[in-house]
C-alpha cells in the first residue's frame, strides 16, 4: 500500500493532537532553553571583548554560568516532558488498537493473522515513541535555536552567513533525499516482524500437532526466513541512516572549515573582529548540531511513521456496533424461538453460496438437532443467528424480530454459544465459567456446575474452582472441556443455547453426562444442537437434515428414518461407529 508523506504527517498530527497541552508545555520549556542557548555566544562575545578592553569580568562570567546551567536544566525538563508525552502516545495507541481489534467484525478476523495483529499492538506502537520523541524534541527548541542562530549570525556577518548556508544547503539536501528509502526499509522490516509473530502464533496455536507432525524444523526455517527479511530490511534502514549521519557530519565539518577560512580572511581585512568570529563559530556549532540531530531524527521519524501507517490500517477496519448490553437477568428467561426465512449466504463474493434459500422454524423451548454431512452449512446457520455474518438474502429472526434490528449486545446476551472445539481460556476454572457472566454469584456457579455434571471434577481438582486449567484447558479432558463450555454458556442465562457438538467420540460416561445436561437445559431453554451423536438426535424434539446448504427434511427421528434416505444413511453410519 503506497502512502504519501502528507498522510504520514496527518497521522502523526492525529497522534499528537490529544496531547497538545503537554506538547505545548514541553515546547515552551524547549523555547526557554533555546533562548538561553542563543544568548550564550553573545555573552561569550562580551567576555572576549571585556578581556580585550580589560573591563571587569565578574558579572559577565556569572551571567555566562547562569545561562549554561539554567539552559541545561530547562532543556532537561523539556526533554522529560516531551519523552513522557511520547510514552503517553504509545499507551494511547495501544489502548485504542486493543479495543478496536476486540470489536472487529468476524469476517475481518477471518482474513487477518492474529500474530501480525499482536505485533502491531506490541512492536509497532513502540516505534511511535521514536517518531514522536524525535518530532517533538526537534520541533521546539532545536528549531528556535536554528532560526535564532541564523538571525544572529546574519547580524554578526551577513556575507559569511550566506557562504556558510550555501555549504549547508548543498550537503543537507542529501539527507532529504534519503528519507523515502529509510521509510520504505522500515516499513518492510516491521511487516517482516509481523510475519514472525503470525508464524509463531500459528505454531503455538497447534503446538501438539506441530510436535506430532515433526514440523519443528520446518516452522523454524519459515520463521527464520521472516527474521532474516526483517534483519535485511533493518540493516538496509541502518545503512541509509548511516548515510544521513555522514551527510550531517560532512555538512558540519565543511561549514566549519569554510567559516574558518573565509571568516579568517575577513578578520585579516578588518571586515570582522575576532570576538565576532568566535561568536559566529559558536552559533555555527549550534546550527550544525541541529542539522546532525535532524539527520539522525529522520530515521526515528521514518520508522515511527511506518508504524503509524500499519496501526492506521487496523484502525480503518470496520468494527461491530454493539450497543448497550442489558443487565444479566434483566430479560425474561423464557425460551426464544428462531426462524430462518429464505436465507442465502456466501462467505466471500467470489465464493459459491454456503446456504441456499434455507427456511426453518425452531419453536421456543425443547431440543432441535441439526444433522448433515460435514460442510453442509450447519455451523454457518449458528453464525448467522449470532450475527457473526449477515445473510445475503432472507432473514434470521428471534421471537419474530429480525436479528439485524436488535442491538448486537442485546441479541448476544440472549444466546449461549458453545463452539465445536469448546475453547478454554488460560486461567482458573472459575474464570472460565464466569467469562460470560462475571457477576454470577457462588450459588449460581455451584448450581450450573451441578447441572453440567462437573461437581466430581471440581472436587478432584486441588484448588477446586480456583484451579488453573492451563493454556487452552490442556489439563481437562475433551468431555470436561465441552461441559465447561456449556456451563459457561448457561451462566449467561440464555434464552437460546447453540451447541456445536464435538465430533470426536466421548466415552460412555461423558456422553451420558452431556445427554443429560442437554435434556435438562432443553426443559427451560431453546436448545439447538449440531448433532454428531445418535443419543442427541434420538432425544431431539425436532431434527433438521441439512445438505449442500439447504434444509432437505424436518421431522422427528422415527419420521425421518422412514422418509429421508440421507438421514437413514447418517444414522446407519452412526450405528456402525457406535
Ligand atoms: N470462515 C469461513 N470462510 C470461508 N468459508 C467457510 C468459513 N467457514 C466455513 N466455510 C465453508 O462453508 C461451508 C460450510 O461450513 P460449515 O462449518 O457451516 O459446515 P458444517 O455443516 O458445520 O460442517 P461440520 O459438520 O464439518 O462442522 C464449508 O464448505 C466450509 O468450508
UniProtKB/TrEMBL annotation:
Keyword set, alphabetical order: ATP-binding, Membrane, Nucleotide-binding, Transmembrane, Transmembrane helix
Signal peptide location: none
Membrane topology: Multi-pass membrane protein
Major localization listed first in the record, in broad terms: membrane
Domain ABC transporter: 338-573
Keyword Transmembrane annotated: yes
Keyword Transcription regulation annotated: no
Subcellular location: Cell membrane
Gene Ontology molecular function, alphabetical: ATP binding
InterPro entries: AAA+_ATPase (IPR003593), ABC1_TM_dom (IPR011527), ABC1_TM_sf (IPR036640), ABC_transporter-like_ATP-bd (IPR003439), ABC_transporter-like_CS (IPR017871), P-loop_NTPase (IPR027417), Type_1_exporter (IPR039421)
PROSITE patterns recorded: ABC_TM1F (PS50929), ABC_TRANSPORTER_1 (PS00211), ABC_TRANSPORTER_2 (PS50893)
TM spans (from-to): 60-82, 135-154, 160-179, 237-259
ABC transmembrane type-1 domain ranges (all copies): 26-303
Name of the protein: ABC transporter ATP-binding protein
Amino acid at each position: 500500500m503506497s502512502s504519501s508523506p502528507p498522510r504520514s504527517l496527518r497521522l502523526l498530527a492525529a497522534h499528537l493532537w490529544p496531547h497538545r497541552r503537554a506538547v505545548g508545555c514541553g515546547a515552551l520549556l524547549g523555547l526557554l532553553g533555546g533562548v538561553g542557548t542563543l544568548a550564550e555566544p553573545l555573552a561569550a562575545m562580551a567576555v572576549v571583548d571585556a578581556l580585550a578592553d580589560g573591563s571587569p569580568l565578574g558579572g559577565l562570567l556569572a551571567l555566562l554560568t547562569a545561562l549554561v546551567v539554567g539552559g541545561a536544566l530547562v532543556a532537561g525538563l523539556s526533554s522529560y516532558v516531551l519523552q513522557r508525552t511520547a510514552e503517553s502516545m504509545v499507551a494511547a495507541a495501544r489502548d485504542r488498537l486493543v479495543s478496536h481489534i476486540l470489536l472487529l467484525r468476524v469476517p475481518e478476523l477471518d482474513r487477518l493473522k492474529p500474530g501480525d495483529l499482536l505485533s502491531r499492538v506490541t512492536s509497532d506502537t513502540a516505534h511511535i515513541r521514536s517518531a514522536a520523541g524525535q518530532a517533538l524534541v526537534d520541533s521546539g527548541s532545536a528549531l528556535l535555536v536554528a532560526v535564532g542562530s541564523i538571525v544572529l549570525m546574519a547580524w554578526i556577518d551577513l556575507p559569511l552567513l550566506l557562504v556558510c548556508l550555501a555549504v549547508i544547503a548543498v550537503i543537507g539536501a542529501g539527507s532529504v533525499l534519503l528519507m523515502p528509502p529509510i521509510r520504505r526499509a522500515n516499513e518492510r522490516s516491521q511487516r517482516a516482524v509481523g510475519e514472525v509473530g503470525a508464524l509463531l502464533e500459528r505454531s503455538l496455536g497447534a503446538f501438539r500437532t506441530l510436535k506430532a507432525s515433526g514440523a519443528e524444523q520446518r516452522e523454524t526455517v519459515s520463521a527464520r526466513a521472516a527474521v532474516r527479511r526483517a534483519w535485511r530490511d533493518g540493516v538496509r534502514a541502518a545503512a541509509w541512516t548511516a548515510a544521513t549521519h555522514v551527510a550531517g557530519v560532512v555538512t558540519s565539518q565543511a561549514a566549519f572549515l569554510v567559516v574558518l577560512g573565509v571568516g579568517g580572511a575577513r578578520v585579516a581585512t578588518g571586515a570582522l573582529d575576532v570576538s565576532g568570529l568566535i561568536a559566529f563559530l559558536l552559533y555555527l556549532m549550534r546550527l550544525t548540531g541541529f542539522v546532525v540531530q535532524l539527520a539522525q531524527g529522520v530515521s526515528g521519524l521514518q520508522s515511527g511513521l511506518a508504524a503509524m501507517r500499519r496501526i492506521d490500517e487496523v484502525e480503518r477496519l470496520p468494527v461491530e456496533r454493539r450497543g448497550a448490553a442489558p443487565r444479566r437477568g434483566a430479560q425474561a428467561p423464557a425460551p426464544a424461538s428462531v426462524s430462518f426465512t429464505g436465507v442465502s449466504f456466501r462467505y466471500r463474493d467470489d465464493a459459491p453460496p454456503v446456504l441456499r434459500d434455507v427456511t426453518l422454524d425452531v419453536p421456543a423451548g425443547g431440543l432441535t438437532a441439526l444433522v448433515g454431512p460435514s460442510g453442509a452449512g450447519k455451523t454457518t446457520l449458528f453464525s448467522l443467528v449470532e450475527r457473526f455474518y449477515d445473510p445475503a438474502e432472507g432473514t434470521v429472526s428471534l421471537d419474530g424480530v429480525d436479528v439485524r434490528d436488535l442491538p448486537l449486545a442485546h441479541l448476544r446476551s440472549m444466546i449461549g454459544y458453545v463452539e465445536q472445539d469448546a475453547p478454554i481460556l488460560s486461567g482458573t476454572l472459575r474464570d472460565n465459567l464466569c467469562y460470560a457472566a462475571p457477576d454470577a454469584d457462588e450459588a449460581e456457579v455451584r448450581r450450573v456446575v451441578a447441572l453440567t455434571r462437573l461437581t466430581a471434577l471440581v472436587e478432584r481438582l486441588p484448588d477446586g474452582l480456583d484451579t488453573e486449567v492451563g493454556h487452552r484447558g490442556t489439563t481437562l479432558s475433551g468431555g470436561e472441556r465441552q461441559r465447561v463450555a456449556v456451563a459457561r454458556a448457561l451462566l449467561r442465562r440464555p434464552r437460546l443455547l447453540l451447541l456445536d457438538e464435538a465430533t470426536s467420540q466421548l466415552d460412555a460416561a461423558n456422553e451420558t453426562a452431556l445427554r443429560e445436561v442437554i435434556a435438562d437445559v432443553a426443559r427451560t431453554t431453546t436448545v439447538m444442537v449440531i448433532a454428531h451423536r445418535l443419543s442427541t438426535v434420538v432425544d431431539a424434539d425436532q431434527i433438521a437434515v441439512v445438505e449442500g446448504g439447504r434444509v432437505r427434511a424436518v421431522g422427528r427421528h422415527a419420521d425421518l428414518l422412514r422418509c429421508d434416505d440421507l438421514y437413514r444413511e447418517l444414522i446407519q453410519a452412526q450405528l456402525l461407529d457406535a
